Amino acid sequence: MKIKLNLNGRDREFEIAQNEYLLETLRNNHITSVKNGCDKSTCGACTVLMDGKPVLSCSVLSARADGHKITTVDGLQKEVEEISDFFGEEGADQCGFCNTGMALTVYALKHELKNPTDEQIKDYMVGNLCRCTGYHAQFKAIKSYLEVKK
Ligand code: FES
């Protein structure tokens, strides 16, 4: 079957299997910035934005994404670079595998919650795991980013 996505601002058509997940569709079509960490909806490495909200692309059937706006880091390069700079300044960049998913979630957080509390930030980020366990530095980087970008 065919689906249509607005991918990073461009209308695209994809041929998919009925039981295919968005992560597979994207990676099979060379969108390799979307990472496959666990393939079991637990790590957040595969996060993309669907109509501006973070979703785990390994748990969204591609057919369900038909007609939706999908954003990966490729569509938000300037914003992701800014977020990455804050991570770098706090020493929160380690192996980097979680960075793309985490950056998209931070971007969505900034647009969804105004003046979030520490608990709200932690709750929002809970689906993005870091295998290097750099959570403290990441939290500081996210707080600094949100403060500067108010
Ligand atoms: Fe989707 Fe881990 S690859 S949550």
TrEMBL record:
<protein>
    <submittedName>
        <fullName>(2Fe-2S)-binding protein</fullName>
    </submittedName>
</protein>
<keyword id="KW-0411">Iron-sulfur</keyword>
<dbReference type="GO" id="GO:0046872">
    <property type="term" value="F:metal ion binding"/>
</dbReference>
<dbReference type="InterPro" id="IPR012675">
    <property type="entry name" value="Beta-grasp_dom_sf"/>
</dbReference>
<dbReference type="InterPro" id="IPR051452">
    <property type="entry name" value="Diverse_Oxidoreductases"/>
</dbReference>
<keyword id="KW-0001">2Fe-2S</keyword>
<dbReference type="InterPro" id="IPR002888">
    <property type="entry name" value="2Fe-2S-bd"/>
</dbReference>
<dbReference type="GO" id="GO:0016491">
    <property type="term" value="F:oxidoreductase activity"/>
</dbReference>
<dbReference type="GO" id="GO:0051537">
    <property type="term" value="F:2 iron, 2 sulfur cluster binding"/>
</dbReference>
<keyword id="KW-0408">Iron</keyword>
<dbReference type="InterPro" id="IPR001041">
    <property type="entry name" value="2Fe-2S_ferredoxin-type"/>
</dbReference>
<dbReference type="Pfam" id="PF00111">
    <property type="entry name" value="Fer2"/>
</dbReference>
<dbReference type="InterPro" id="IPR036010">
    <property type="entry name" value="2Fe-2S_ferredoxin-like_sf"/>
</dbReference>
<dbReference type="InterPro" id="IPR036884">
    <property type="entry name" value="2Fe-2S-bd_dom_sf"/>
</dbReference>
<dbReference type="Pfam" id="PF01799">
    <property type="entry name" value="Fer2_2"/>
</dbReference>
<keyword id="KW-0479">Metal-binding</keyword>
